[in-house]
Amino acid sequence: MLAIVVHSFLLMDIFVECYTARMKSILTLQILLLMIALAMGASGCAEPPPAGMVLVPSGYFSMGSDEEDAAGHALAMGLGKPWYADESPQQRFKLDDYFIDRYEVTNKQFYIFSQATDHPPPPIWNSPRYPEGQDDYPVHAVSYFSAAAYAEWAGKRLPTEAEWEKAARGGTPVQYPWGDAFDGSKANLSLSPRSKTGRGLMPVGSFPQGASPYGAEDMIGNVWEWVNDYYKPYPDSKYQTRYFDGKHVVVRGMSYLGVGHFPKKEYVKVVALKARAAYREKLNPAARRLDIGFRCAKDRKSFYETYIGG
Hints:
By secondary structure, the protein is α+β, with helices and mostly antiparallel strands. Helix content is 30%, strand content 12%.
């Protein structure tokens, strides 16, 4: 009997040792996989950009502007706010990796969404389908709600105001996606007071020379773009306006339409200042203006999430 008990204890010890060794092996493997995932993620092996999107890598950037319209130019021109007023003070902070569409969402893409979901098409189409030959034109005359619905259906989202601006400016606070000097040939903008529609709406990607440091195109011009933020003051801003009411959503990027009736020199100056990547405009989210479109953004998954799961 004693021999049987002793033998049982020996078997139990062997089992415990084997079980402990196995658990240590599993734990060691998990730690190893985690270390590999962290290392590969840090070396750029995380989720690659989905089709039609570009990567905006993690890092600091400067948002807004500390400039002032000391001469009162904007108000003298009859505009609704001083230049730079709602862009200050400039902020510097860090954003994680994310993707943003290389181009604005097109008529064809929105049509597919509309057909798949029975979402109403833009009223400007005057039918369930957009005009012939305009597959690659940016969808326009869409509300914020329609833009958000498309983004969700596509497995994406609208970019935040900060994400939009970083994608346009890069890590340094340049004025335009292409640099600090205004160049009307690098974006679809109205450059003459004689024409309210300038060159007219154009297919996306018509101005590759105006691409941002990350490869996003048409960030300036063609259509204004909805972002996923209410129009509100930046932290520590001294500017006040009745439009900081939680009822207006920000649009960014200027459009192809004209800016009003000004002398030629003043007209181009107004266009140049409104075309800056830091410039903010606001609209009622239900608005379907002729020159309003959008592009989408998406969080970037880590290496672990992409290839291991979680």
